[in-house]
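Worked example 3. Consider a protein that binds zinc ion.
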Amino acid sequence: MKSPSYFLYARKSTESEERQQLSIPAQIDELRTFAQKENLTLVDVLTESKTAKQTGRIVFNEMIRRIQEGEAQGILSWNPDRLARNAVDAGQIIHLLDTGKLLDLKFPTVLFQNNPQGLFMLSIAFGQSKYYVDSLSENTKRGLRQKVRKGEFPGLAPLGYLNDRTIKKIVIDKQTYSIVQEMFTLYAIGSYRLEDMSNFLAKKGIFTKGEKHISKDRVKFLLTNPLYFGYFRYNGEIHQGIHEPLITKKLFDSVQEVIKERGFKRPKEPYNYPFAGFIRCGECGMTITAEKHIKRYKTINRLQIFVYYRCSKKNKTIDCSQQYIPQDTLLPQLNSIIQRVSLSAADYNWFINRINKDQQKEQSAVVAIVQGLKKDVEDIKLKLNKLLDSYLDSVIERTDYLKKKEELVSQKKTLEEKISFLEQSPNKWLEPMKKWFDSALQADKIASDNTNLFEKRNFLKESGSNLILKNKKAHCSWKNQWAALCAAPTSRNLVLGAGIEPTTRRL
Ligand SMILES: [Zn+2]
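Given these inputs, the predicted complex is written out as structure tokens:
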């Protein structure tokens, strides 16, 4: 038997009792999604703004006529009460089903089966307000989904935002938004724990409703909430919001990195192992971790703590043979690596002069970069569409869909942020470089001061070092092209002969 084709029929009444009913576009959205999922063939989309309590609906009557002529054999509507709420219209539908002109009715809210029981249930559904009441809760959910589609966050606003009841949107809370910004900035530094953030909030007067400190879990929830950079999660799925962001995606990403990294550490001793977690093993590729050994000197009744670094040996395919290395052995090696990128004042001036001279020339390069980035954004949009299609066609699972969508949306936001950054101030791409040269000027000082190991760690991380430890020797390459340049000053003239240019589209 040939499968029936359907009319999509959406109706909204202007009557006050039906005020809770959602708009026609909302119904159409839902029904189209349903049709795709159920693989229904739609012949036409029909809409009507009139009550179904009285007869005489023009579009409805026209639909009945077209069904009699065999144009479609099914109707897709939100709920039986959208089709008919008076006896005549209900009778017409049932008659068409009886005579086989109509083969099927589809409602996302109610399962209809074309058999004697089904027809009986349907005749009750038509004109019965019970169904209307039953479908209210479903309508509320549908209302939320529609809100989400429009980019409106449907939940309770988190710290930094308020729910504005009049416009039914979330707005920035002038009292607390800067506290949220400060919290993200602090946590991104990487030397604070979630408890520290809870204490920070307490100092700013932010407590739970019961006047207690905000829990670690809650702090983590805030620090991982995409709402703050302009997106939000609903039902496990990420959506672009229309609210104003509080922080940049870049800052959000740095915070996520810190959270990930700190997850591996024992929370009670965060300060003891500055070089754990970001150096890799040269034999098996796993991260280098740390541990301490306590030695007791009985004669002088003193304890001494020794810190060791070693491969975490988590690679199950390689039986790693690397041994541990004491921090005291590692430290001078890292110092000499830091020293390698240090700049003399003269070199520093030479670089900065060169940069300033070339700035004008780079404007056109920036335009090209922006064009490239925009194309990348378009590509991601296409991918997102394809992804949704695959999901609706049941080619991929919901969990895969959600994961991939979040990935793509995250990339898109990062790119869009770069674009607006470059468009607002075309010379700003030079600033990270200038900042880097500024820190290279400090490298000597950082290398020679052994009282602050975390400063060394931060310098190595910010300069984009790729650190590898093998046979108790640390090796370093530089992800940051400017750092690489400083580390090899003899090649400076060669590299800069053609002018300082952004060599990659991804700055
Ligand atoms: Zn290893």
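Take a moment to read the result before moving on. Residues 129-134, 266-270, 490-507 have pLDDT under 50 and may be disordered. The CA atoms of residues 355 and 432 lie 12 Å apart.
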